[in-house]
Amino acid sequence: MATFSSDGHRLAITYGDRVELRDGSTGQCLPGPPPLHCPVTASEVPAGCLVVAAFRRDGRVLAYSDILQTPPFRAWLWDLDGRRLSATSPPLQDGKSLAFAGDSILIGGNPILGNDASHLSKTIV
Description:
Elements: E1 2-4, E2 10-15, E3 18-23, E4 29-30, E5 51-55, E6 61-66, E7 76-79, E8 84-88, E9 98-101, E10 104-107, E11 110-113
């Protein structure tokens, strides 16, 4: 799957367990978030990931997650300017979709991140 930032400057392409970021004009590869850890079966065989991604309207933050993960569902926020993980969502039971609505991130239709991000666990990378 692929999605452009609203200004068209960045493109996010999802492949299995990762998100690849590219310049929307030149196609040049940009620094992106680390791959997700795919779940494994009881016999340690990778069960696979299906990563989804969404840009915040200003194009400076990318939310991404694995919609095949078993609950609790989590999403990660990648700061494109700082080139680092900036936050992780709290655990949720429903999370088969991911989108931004203004400055809020919606996971499975639940608003998670608004102007007050105090309920997010910060990630230092």
